């Protein structure tokens, strides 16, 4: 079997109906200086992508000018935290006179790799990755194409990463819950939601254990209900706990807004006095939580700070793996008069 011939710039030129020098300028970012028509550039880039040539061109370091494009790949847009990150990223990019390109890939590794391949083909200057499924593969793509990149909200062993301090944030949240809860709540507080096999949840569980250990309690496995992030799973897990205990635990720490939605669905079904016996806290922030009839302590991740720290790595063109932690913010709503100590 004969090996597949290696693609050359002349193959792209023949397919696109352009000269090799025009193809080179269209793919290395110097086409504006040569006054090449934008529609010609688009046609050449489309042909290069179709042939799988443009990424190789980037890898050989032939790009000599910046495109002004910066990319962000994240799982979804409907999550409040991801939405906050994309807005912060857009604002920071615009302030730098850059054009942000944000792609949702639904945690599909094939979609992630395809998005990187296409953005590289359009000579993107830098990439931010948020909550991706295959970080090592994406980092390899960027290194091959000589594209600066950084991971946000997830650690990487291949590139710089900027992550919320999950351990410290949950430790602070759990301690604040214990300050509000009745004496003895430390032995009954429950952690609800998330996947213990994922970095973020495992770190938050660690913070939960450390907070309770500081009060002299070793967490029992029954106090960790890592049921996943799906709203319905969190609702069902809380319902099962309520059935098993004959009521709610004295304090409940919910891991994510999605899980909080599931928990609130169940809480609407039980008597108000049963809810009043439980102090509630949640990782991440939703302003609508302030409208709940019982106060909810929240930890808000600082999206703007995460993006600024990520840009600092990109500005320095850092490529070595490193981990930067950003401290989240504790949001403590005032207790209604009827729920203050002595008034329960």
Describe the 3D structure:
44% of the residues lie in helices and 16% in strands. The protein is elongated. With 344 residues, the chain is an alpha/beta fold. It has 3 domains: 9-59, 434 Repressor (Amino-terminal Domain) (Orthogonal Bundle); 69-158, Rossmann fold, CATH 3.40.50; 166-302 and 331-339, Rossmann fold (3-Layer(aba) Sandwich). The protein is built from 13 helices and 12 strands. The strands form 2 sheets. Strands 2-1-3-4-5-11 form a 6-stranded parallel beta sheet, with helices on both faces. Mean pLDDT is 88; it is low at 55-64 and 338-344.
Name the average pLDDT: 88
CATH superfamily of the largest domain: Response regulator
- Rounded to an integer in angstroms, the radius of gyration calculated over CA atoms is 25 Å
Integer count of domains: 3
* CATH C-level name of the largest domain: Alpha Beta
Fraction of residues in H or I helices: 40-55%
CATH topology of the largest domain: the name is Rossmann fold
SSE pattern, N- to C-terminal: HHHHEHEHEHEEHEHEHEHHEEHEE
**End-to-end Cα distance:** 81 Å
């Amino acid at each position: 079997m004969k090996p597949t011939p290696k693609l050359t710039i002349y193959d792209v030129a023949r397919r696109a109906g352009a000269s090799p020098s025009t193809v080179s300028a269209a793919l290395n970012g110097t086409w504006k200086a040569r006054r090449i028509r934008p529609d010609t550039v688009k046609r050449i880039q489309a042909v290069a992508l179709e042939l799988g040539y443009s990424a190789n061109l980037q890898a050989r370091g032939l790009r000599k000018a910046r495109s002004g494009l910066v990319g962000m790949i994240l799982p979804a847009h409907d999550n409040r935290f991801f939405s906050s990150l994309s807005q912060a990223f857009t604002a920071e990019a615009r302030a730098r006179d850059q054009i942000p390109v944000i792609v949702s890939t639904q945690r599909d590794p094939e979609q992630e790799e395809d998005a990187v391949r296409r953005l590289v083909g359009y000579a993107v200057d830098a990439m931010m990755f948020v909550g991706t499924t295959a970080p090592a593969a994406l980092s390899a793509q960027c290194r091959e194409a000589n594209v600066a990149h950084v991971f946000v909200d997830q650690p990487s062993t291949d590139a710089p990463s900027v992550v919320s301090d999950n351990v410290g944030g949950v430790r602070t949240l759990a301690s604040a819950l214990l300050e509000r809860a009745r004496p003895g709540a430390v032995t009954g507080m429950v952690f609800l939601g998330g996947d213990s096999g994922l970095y973020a949840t495992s770190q938050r569980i660690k913070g939960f254990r450390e907070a309770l250990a500081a009060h002299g309690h070793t967490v029992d496995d029954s106090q960790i209900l890592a049921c996943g992030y799906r709203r319905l799973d969190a609702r069902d897990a809380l319902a099962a706990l309520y059935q098993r205990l004959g009521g709610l635990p004295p304090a409940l720490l919910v891991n994510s807004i999605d899980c909080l939605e599931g928990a609130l669905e169940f809480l609407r079904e039980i008597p108000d006095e049963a809810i009043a016996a439980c102090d509630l806290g949640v990782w991440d922030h939703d302003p609508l939580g302030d409208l709940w009839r019982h106060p909810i302590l929240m930890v808000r991740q600082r999206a703007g700070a995460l993006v600024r720290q990520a840009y600092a790595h990109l500005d320095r063109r850092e490529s070595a793996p490193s981990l930067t932690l950003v401290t989240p913010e504790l949001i403590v709503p005032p207790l209604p008069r009827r729920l203050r100590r002595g008034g329960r």
